[in-house]
Amino acid sequence: GAPLNSGCQRCTLHESSARVCMPAEGAPGGVLIVGMYPGKVEERTGRHNWGSTGQYLRKNVAKTTNGPVVYDNAIKCRPKNTTNISASIFNGCRPYLAQIIEDAGPTRIIALGSAAVRGLTGRAVPTMSARRAYTWHLSKSIPIFFLPHPAAIYSNRILRAQFEADLAWCINGPLPPKPPLSSLAKCVTSRAGAVLAA
C-alpha cells in the first residue's frame, strides 16, 4: 500500500479534480464500504457518500449496525467521464485502496457498484444482475460483497427494498464459504510472463 498523497499525480485525474486523493473516513475494525468515486457533493465536502443517495446509504448502514464503519472509494478523485474509466486510473488508486484495507482492518468489505468491484478485485462485475455476489480477499481472508451503487437503485422502491435487505445480509449475515484454494496463483499479464510460465 501507499499513504494518501494530496498532490497525487499517479493518474490524470489530478489535473481536473478540485479535491485530489480523498482520504477514507470512519472507525476501523468493522465494515469497510468502498464506493466507486466521489461525486460533486463529495468532492465539495470531502466526505464520502454525502450526496442524497449517500445519505440514504449511511442511514441504512446506521440502521443495520452500530459497529465501526469506514467509508472510502475505489477511485480517490472525481472523474469527469464516468462511462469509460481507464485502467491507469484504477491502477493509480489501487495502492491507496490496499493501504486503506490495511489501516481499516475490516472484518467485511462491501463494494458499491462495478467500478468499486474493479478497484478491489481487478475485474468488473455487473452488480445490478449479480445479487448477493461475493468473493474473498484471499491474502487478508476478508469477504468482499458486491452491491449495486445506491444511485443505481434509489428511484425504484423494489430495488431499494432488495438493496436494504442485501446490505443487512452483507453486514450481519453469516460469512460465506471460502473458495477451496490452498495456494496462491499468479496472473500472466505479459508475453514475458507467459514465456516464464511456460
Describe what this molecule looks like in 3D.
This protein has 198 residues and is of the alpha/beta class. Helices cover 36% and strands 14% of the residues. It has 7 helices and 6 strands; from the N terminus they run ββααβαβαββααα. It has helices spanning 40-45, 52-64, 87-104, 114-121, 150-153, 157-172, 191-197; strands at 25-26, 31-35, 69-73, 108-112, 133-137, 142-147. Strands 1-3-2-4-6-5 form a 6-stranded mixed sheet, sandwiched between helices. Strand 5 and strand 6 form a beta hairpin. The chain is globular. The mean pLDDT is 89.
Task: Name its key features.
198 residues, globular, alpha/beta, 7 helices, six-stranded mixed sheet, 6 strands
Which runs of at least 5 residues are low in confidence (pLDDT < 50)? none
- Spatial strand sequence of the major β-sheet: 1-3-2-4-6-5
Give the helix level as a range of percent.
25-40%
What distance separates the N and C termini? 30 Å
The SSE string, one letter per element, is: EEHHEHEHEEHHH
Strand element count: 6
Which structural class is indicated by helix and strand composition?
A: alpha/beta
Task: Indicate the radius of gyration in whole angstroms.
Answer: 17 Å
Strand fraction: 5-15%
Number of continuous helical runs: 7
Gross morphology is: globular
Largest beta-sheet characterization? 6 strands, mixed
Instruction: Return the average pLDDT rounded to an integer.
Output: 89
